[in-house]
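Journal club prep, notes for RB
We'll compare a predicted complex against what the paper describes. Inputs for the magnesium ion case:
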Amino acid sequence: MSQRKPQNITLLGGTGSIGGSTLDIVARHSDLYRLYAVSGYRRVHELAEICRQFEPVFAVVPDQDAADQLEAETADLNTTVLVGADALEEVAAAEPVDIVVAAIVGAAGLLPALAAVKAGKRILLANKEALVMSGQLFMDEVRRSGAELLPIDSEHNAIFQCLPAQGTCFDDDSLPASGVRQILLTASGGPFRGYNPDQLAGVTPEQAVAHPNWSMGQKISVDSASLMNKGLELIEACWLFSVKPEAIQVVVHPQSIIHSMVSYNDGSVIAQMGNPDMRTPIAYGLAWPDRIDAGVKPLDLFQVAQLDFEPADEVAFPCLALARQAFSLGGTAPAILNAANEVAVQAFLDERIGFEQIPELCRYALDCLPVEPAVSLDIILASDCKAREICQPYLEHLSMHRIK
Ligand code: NAD
Ligand code: MG
């Protein structure tokens, strides 16, 4: 292999689950990658530990209190501490940066991810909410700037791997021209697969975050349990691969060994398989089009023994249909859905509402707010704000009428 300078990485959301998996790979390949900048939000001590191990040039925290703590803990290091949301955009777009890993959770990740796109970086996108909110605008910027957008959501990474090599940007003709008939988006079904609505009404946050196959942050774990994650992923796939929702079939596959498939018009179905470990898609995104060791246990098919498939239960889990509805409404509807879902998930985690009320709040926001064309970031962010606002009084109402 040629002797190249290590590539500089900005890791947005370094203290999270995706952040940890990314750092594990960076540590394994210090000859190839160097942590240039990293951000954290609440877990400042963990961020200090990351700075100690990787000595990035910059570390970004949300406020001055966090900065004071981080500076005190890293006084002997050469890391400069930066503060605030603007600093996230700066480190995402900074000239020395080659790769940006967008692993902040939720709408908070949109602006820095977009900054990386505008600066034409290679972006490893975990933060699906950014694409759900601003799909058209985001993809237009990718095309304009020539950024390399590599999905590291495991399903989308699998789909990317199952498509013929054609760069990282797709247009409306790309998939049909490659003979693609359908995308088969797999879902584990989450911890409540097989539950009926009555059973779902009694589930606790602890049960919801205990995913059977993946270890992830709290928000995405609840989304996986409600199938909102699959709904957001359906929208994510439509934008990433420039396809319509009708071209995507959701397939529940409880073992999470197949991470998604592509069905071709000659009858072939190509699947990407592996143990459920996010280091695989992250390593793929970092090294693309090469392959590097990700530290992932090789798949033992005899141990797996069986692969099952079933349709999703869209009656017990209405979030999937809500996401489809939001995508077909278009404009700001997916941003409204995303914001309402973020509010609902937090309220569920705080035990203010029941699990079955998550889709209720989302539906309320979609029904109440007018959908506008998502032609500017200001309009998208204003919709996000309005959705959060109108959710508050309805949350009170739901919490009073909760079946305990
Ligand atoms: P996590 O909760 O473990 O980590 C979230 C990260 O975002 C943390 O570093 C946190 O400090 C930071 N953060 C939180 N709120 C912030 C804010 N307001 N401003 C700035 N930073 C903030 O989440 P995760 O599981 O690592 O997921 C991150 C993203 O990746 C999500 O969008 C999720 O949907 C996506 N994703 C995760 C997985 C997974 O296996 N964990 C898989 C696919 C996609
Ligand atoms: Mg996923």
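Talking point for the session: DSSP finds 18 helices and eleven strands in the chain.
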